[in-house]
What does this fold into?
Amino acid sequence: MGAAENGMRGITNILVCGIGGQGVMTATEILAEAALALGFDAKKTEVAGMSQRGGVVVSHLRFGERVLSPQIAPGEADLLVGFEAAETLRWVHMLRRGAPVLTNTSRLSPPVVECGVFDYPPDPVGQLRALGVPLQAFDAAGIALEFGDIRLGNTVMLGAMSDHLPFPAEILRDAVAARFAQRKPERLDVNLRAFDAGRARAAALVA
Amino acid sequence: MGNALTAAVARRLFLSGNDAVAHAVRDAGVRVAAAYPGTPSTEILEVLARFPGLYAEWSPNEKVALEVALGASMMGARAFSAMKHVGLNVASDALMTLTVTGVEGGLVIAVADDVGMSSSQNEQDSRFWGRFAHVPVFEPADSQEAYDMTRAAFGLSERFRVPVLLRLTTRICHVKGRVDLAPPETREPTGFVKDARRWVMVPGNAKPRLPLMFEREAALAAESAVSPFNLLETGSDCRIGFVTAGPAYMHVREAFPDAPVLKLGFSYPLPLARIRELAGQVDTLLVVEETEPLAEHEIRAAGIACVGKAVLPRLGELSPEVLRRGVARLRGEAAAEPDALPPQPVFPRPPTMCVACPHLGIYYTLSQLRNIIISGDIGCYTLGAGHPWNALDTCISMGASMGMALGMDKGRGVGDGNKKIVAVIGDSTFMHMGMQGLLDITYNRGNVTILLLDNRAVGMTGGQDNPATGRDIHGQEAGRVNFPQLCEALGVKKERIRVVDPYQLPVLFKALREETKIDEPSVIITDRPCVLIDDYKKTPPYAVIDDTCTGCGNCLEVGCPAIHVSRRDKVVKPSGKEVDLAFVRIETSACTGCGLCVQPCAPEAIVHATPVVPVRFMKREG
It folds into this structure.
């Protein structure tokens, strides 16, 4: 579905969003590495100036035969992956009609909400569903915590998105394995288990 | 140009534009590289510092960085300096004369424009400096070109003895793409040659060099006219021909695949003959550039009809979508709306200060003071202008808090007679350009209280080292500035310099109240590290006792992102006034136990999540 069906256009557009510190950029980087391993051209971009300060992070990944502009235009994302519920809602206009959305149900409210200046939407997941987009929503943070580390959330999300790609899920799993084998071998096993748990959770949901 | 470089591919990597520039600087055999951190350019020097065999430094500011690079070039070594757009304003004093002397070893200056303003105070177009300083400008369109053009820029610099501006934008710096590296070169410095007529720019020596500078510019125009970086791509749809440069080229190709395009890589001096050639082949010539109509005006001045900013925006980033709209406007057609859901309204999520940031206590305290004007500066602490503190009143340029505070003091009228003037500045910004302003305050007897927030890092750009951290760019031990001594040397009385722990709110409050009452310059230095650097040590986290919390919301005024509202309510006071209540919880997994929120909590509802030896905070006096 979704991104997998867009092979005829040649370019796959994936938008990954969340907030600073959730591992959005790392997840997108691993996704890019999987595409590169298959010989695709790829470009990845984000505005990251102050993202470390809990601000909005949105990472654009485009891959295919030859990628020109690095930015995905509104209405052209083949897959939207959100690491936080309200952030997913923020970027839903980027989706191509009928393309799927994968979202973590976690709600992270910033100080501007806590001090009462703005309101957090009461039910962002319900709003997404009401918009009629194909949606898979689940508690990725909860799965990460089952493995004892909230930071595994981005690997859980990678597993969940792995069946939405125009290449086999195992390619992405191999990219996760390659990255951790090289940088943090002691974290390899738990990351692969988190990946598999995310993949299984998404597969159990009807989009 | 570049054939020897591109003949063999040494390695293929997936690199950001910044990373690609750094690899090219290394592969060009550069000996000295200097920069001051600034988004979106910061990573260039961070990557360079990891390469063995070249000297890399964080300089106190961009002017010093460029002067360091120039000195190395005078020794006949290849040299490099990187900065953000506003950094070149600071370095421009050196640039405007080093263009008169010219260079010896190849000198490339990477300047990164924050087009779209993700993390800057303005959106200026650095290509102007090429015109102003009569130096060539290269504009890569992706990471591969960032690599290739940086390599080629060193060759051009040496052939014409001219510094080359490598103009980057956010969508070059922070876009990753595939890069094929070329075989590296090695360069030995050719040695310093004493030549006062070349290097000592007194009028008698500089005057004869000015005609040389203009001759050089003419020769560069001839070079640009034949440069392979200025590529005319034919197309089947000749209604509109595009002249474009940098990332805008990618957007043009994406949106109009069949149009003829002149891609400018060596974009100053403009290759006017090629532009005229394209103009002759198309109905309309459209100039697509970020951000100012610079090429557009020069093309028109050369007698070539063109369109540009009349249909395209003059600010912000371009994109294929923006170009499609502009071209529709040009053709008098309605732009096709994207087939997409409408954007959904969601609260803004501006950057915030970190959990336990030492600045939280400072802005909490400043927000409690009345009748003060807070002259601000550039860094994480600029966020103090936002919620919940609203405790920063100005932000202009690096170090400006000092001079502006003095001007506020001297310029005040009767209505502001009772206002206290406070300036807030970080350690790195103070050394960058703030020290001179403090000197002015002491020299001219300003009545200003300075808060010098020493968190031992250039925080906003990611915690880089600087002369206040005692570590160099490699994290190795280095000289560390002594701020109390420095301030005293700049003329602040010793008894007017205090060092305060920003986590001790009553102490900070008392110090601020006392110093603002005294009619002479004083400096309050806070001395706790940025929470993102290794110097920061976590302590046991806190939690809220639900039954004790009265919902007063005082702790929320600290602005820590680990404090969340669990329940809101309203209560009517005996006076009849309705008061909002906000009952809170602390995200214990995020809390690092700084204790700032504990101090304004009157009912003592905030306690350690697991019992530890009690920490006592001083109660506020009076």
Observations:
- Strands of chain A lie at 11-19, 41-46, 56-64, 79-82, 101-104, 135-138.
- Residues 1-8 of chain A have pLDDT under 50 and may be disordered.
